[in-house]
Fold this protein.
Amino acid sequence: MKTSFLIPALGLVAAVAWAQPSPGLVDAARGPVPVLESTHPPLLGNAVNDDVRRPRNYDQQPPTIPHRVDGYQIDRNFNKCLDCHARAKSDFSGAIPVSATHYIDRAGKVLPQISTRRYFCMQCHIAQERDPALVGNSFRGVEPDKK
Ligand code: HEC
Ligand code: HEC
């Protein structure tokens, strides 16, 4: 083998070895677990399932979900949320139908089916957990009579 190839190759091996983080290295941005170990996210608790619709705090706020949604399938073949919330299904399901805005595409055209930009419901709507607030918050929502 030609030594002209061998020298850069050895250099690369040395650089990789040098770039390995030391076992105890901690990166504060990802928590107290050392960089070379996997983190274990805390388990999710039980979402609130009281079926009570919550007031909205500002105009155009996506309403929060008042029921559990664990295991609801949303993929290219099926959307469990639309099984109840599609406008055509709400007579049977008793769910609040998605508003007309959910059928409008980004060019403003009204579609016969849900718009793709509203397909992944939990991008905007989320179930809630009974957790204490992590930080103080002095936000005040719109007052109902000033809407
Ligand atoms: C089995 C039927 C059913 C399914 C499936 C379902 N919902 Fe619901 N949803 C309801 C009903 C009924 C209500 C009215 C309040 C209640 O009874 O919980 C509701 C309420 C809501 C509300 C509150 C609306 C408001 O104006 O306050 C949102 C948001 C919502 N659901 C989103 C979702 C999303 C997102 C999914 C899928 C992950 C989903 N739902 C799946 C039946 C369903
Ligand atoms: C890009 C964000 C976004 C996505 C994705 C989205 N929504 Fe909404 N949704 C909103 C907003 C904002 C509102 C309130 C304003 C409005 O009605 O457009 C709303 C309103 C609603 C309401 C209340 C309707 C009413 O008349 O009070 C229901 C129910 C709902 N959405 C269900 C769904 C379901 C089910 C999906 C998935 C198929 C979905 N949304 C996807 C943003 C979104």
Summary: Helices lie at 3-19, 80-85, 90-93. The mean pLDDT is 87. The chain is about 20% helix and 0% strand.
